[in-house]
Amino acid sequence: MKIRKNAIHYNVMVLPGIIFLILFSIVPMFYAVMAFQNFKPGRGIWGSEWVGLENFSYLFMLPDSRLIFFNTVFLAVMKIIANLIIPLVFALLLNEVRQRFMRKTIQTIVYLPHFLSWVLLATIFFDVFSLDGMVNKLFGLFGVDPILFYASNKWFPGIIIATDVWKEFGFNAIVYLAALTGINPVLYEAADIDGASRFRQLWHVTLPGVRTTVVLLGTLALGNVMNANFDQIFNMYNPLVYQSSDIIDTYVYRVGLNDLQYSLATAVGLLKSVVSFILVVVSYFMASRFANYRIF
Amino acid sequence: MVGRTSLSNRVIDGTILAVLILFTLACLIPLLHTVAVSFSDKTAADAGRVVLTPIKATTASYSKVLDDTQFFNAFFISVKRVLFGGLLNFALNIMMAFALSKEPKEFRMRNTYMWFLVFTMLFSGGIVPWFMTIKSYGMLDSMWALILPHAVQVFNVILLMNFFRNLPKELSEAAEIDGAGPWYIMLRLFVPLSLPAIATVTLFSIVFHWNSFFDGLILMNSQDHYPLQTYIQTLVAQLSAQAMTAMSPDQLAEAMAVSNRTFNAAKIIISMIPILLIYPFIQRFFIHGITLGSVKE
Lengths: 296, 297
Known about the structure:
The complex is a heterodimer of chains A (296) and B (297). Chain A is mostly helical and 296 residues long. In chain A, 73% of the residues lie in helices and 1% in strands. Chain A contains 14 helices and two strands. Chain A has helices at 2-31, 44-47, 54-61, 63-95, 100-111, 118-128, 134-141, 156-181, 185-193, 198-221, 230-236, 242-245, 248-258, 262-291; strands at residues 37-38, 49-50. The two termini of chain A are 27 Å apart. Chain B has helices at 7-38, 42-46, 60-66, 69-100, 110-122, 127-136, 144-147, 154-165, 169-177, 182-193, 195-211, 214-219, 228-245, 249-258, 261-294. Chain B is globular, with a radius of gyration of 25 Å. Chain B starts with 6 loop residues before the first helix and ends with a helix. The chains are: A mainly alpha (296), B mainly alpha (297). The interface between A and B is large, with 105 and 111 residues.
C-alpha cells in the first residue's frame, strides 16, 4: 500500500519532463514524414503531396551525397582515433606527476577549453591560423611560406581534427584518470620489489589497468561515426573548403533551412538518424557484452 | 623505492613535466593571444604584430564594446536564458533523477520511462522537423523557443540518477520509517547529499545554455532576439565571408585588415567571463561527479 502511494509521487515527479520530451522530441519524429512528401510550406503536412521514396532515390543520385557521406565518416573516424589516443597519453603522463599542486594546476587549465563554445573558439582559431597569424609565424621561423589554411582542402580537415582534439583532450582524459586511480597501489609496490623499471611498470601494471576503459570508450565511439560535430564545422568552414569538410549536418542545414528544400533535407536527416540509431544500439550492445557496461 | 630518486628517474620526471607543460601551454596560448589582441592598439593588431603581449596597451576596444548596444542586448538575452533555462533544468533534473533512481518494484513504470528517455536521446527526427515543430507551436522569435525544447537533458538526468543510486538504501528506508514522504526525502536527504553531482549537472546545463548559438540563429527572425553566441556567430560568418571572396593571399590580408581584430577579441573575452567565473568553483566537483555517474561497475 505504502509502495503504491509513493509511486504516485514518483509519477508526478517525472511527468513534466515526459511532457516536454513528447512535445519537443516525439512530435518532431512525426514531422519527419516530410521526407516522403513533396512538402510545400503553404499546404502543410496534411496538404502536401506524397511521393514515396522519391526524395531518397534523388538523394542517392546527387554527386554531393557521396562527398558529404565520405567527409562525415572520415572526419568522425579520425577524431575518434585521435580522441582515444591523445587523452590516454596525456593521462598516463599526468599520472606520473607526484606534486599535487602541479597536477591540479595542469588539470584546471586543460579542462577549460571544453567549456568554451565553438563560436568563440572559431573566431580565435580564425585569427591563429590566418595569413599573419601565430601558426604561420611559427612556420615562418622554419622557412615555410605562409599557408592559407582556411582556403586549402589539403590543410583544412587537419585543422578541424586538431582543434577538436585541442578542445577536448583534457576533458576526455578524466575517464582515464579515474581508471588510473582505480589501480591497486600494491601492484606497483610488488613490481618495484621485483625490480621493474618505470617503463616496465607502465607496460605491465598501468596499461592493463586502463585497457578495459580504452576498449569501452572505443566501442561506444562507434555510435558516433555519423557525427563529425556540426557546431565546430559550421563555425569554422567556408565555401572554399566545402569539398573537404561539408558534412551531413551542415549539408542538411544549408539545403533545408537556407535553400528551403525541406523534404530533401528531411530525407537526408532521417537517413542519418536511422543509421546513427542502429550504430549506437549496436555499440551499446557490444559494450554491454564485452565490458559489462550499462547506461542505467 | 630506491629507484624513485635515482638520476635516470629524475630525468624521466623532468621530461614528463616538460611535455605536460607543452600540453598546458597549447591550451592557454590561443586564449592569452586573444586577451593580448583585445588590449592592443588597433593598427598593431590589424597588422598581425601582436603575439602574447599587448602592443601599446589600451582599453579602447573595451570602451567601444560598452557603446555597442546590440552586444549588451544579446548578452542579457543570454543571461536570461541561462537563468530560466538553468532553473528549469535544475528542477527537472532532480525530480526525474530521483524518481528514476527507484527500483522497479517501488516504481513500476520506471523502466518504461527509462527506455522512453533513452529512445528520445538516441533517435531524432532531424533538424528540419524540429524546426517545423517549434514553428507550429508559434514559438519562433520568443524566449520560450530557447528554453523549453531543452527542458530535459536526458544525459544529465542519467548522470544524476546513477549518482542517486549509489547513495545507501538504508538512508531513505530509515527516513521512510520515520514517516518522511518522497518529496521530503528528495529535498532534505538526496539533494544535500548530492551537491557535488548536482553542481556538476548544473554547470553542464548552464554552459549548454550559454554556449548555444544554433537555435538562436534559426528560431529568431529578428537580430534583436539573438542570444550572445548567435550574435557573435554572425560576426564570424562575416569574417569568413570576407575570407572566401579573397582568393589570393593579398586580397585575404586586405579583408582581414578591414575586420577589426581588437573589437572582436574584446567581445570574445567578455563573452567568456561568465564561464570563467563559475568554472573554478565547480571544477573541483565534476571529476568526482562524472566518474561516479557515467562509469558503472
